[in-house]
Amino acid sequence: RERMTRHRSEVSGRSRIPEAWGKEEELFKDWLDDPSSSSSAAAAFMSSSNTRIIMSARAALAEEQTNGRRRRTT
Q1: What CDD domains does the database record attribute to this sequence (predicted)?
Q2: Contact 31/37 with Cβ under 8 angstroms?
Q3: pLDDT average, residue stretch 23-29
């Protein structure tokens, strides 16, 4: 846990978190929306709590990036 905390503070502000992930994001959405994948990994991914965890992590990284920009500009 200490290593993770230290790593997070070391890389804070150096990572760019895009609002959109380009072509990959569209492919991922298509894969999740594909009815033929309902019994595949897509269904397992969507039915688990992983979706909330991933979205929460992405939001936290985006917020951290935004806060980092504010600190540098003020």
Answers
A1: BIC1_CID (cd22645)
A2: yes
A3: 73
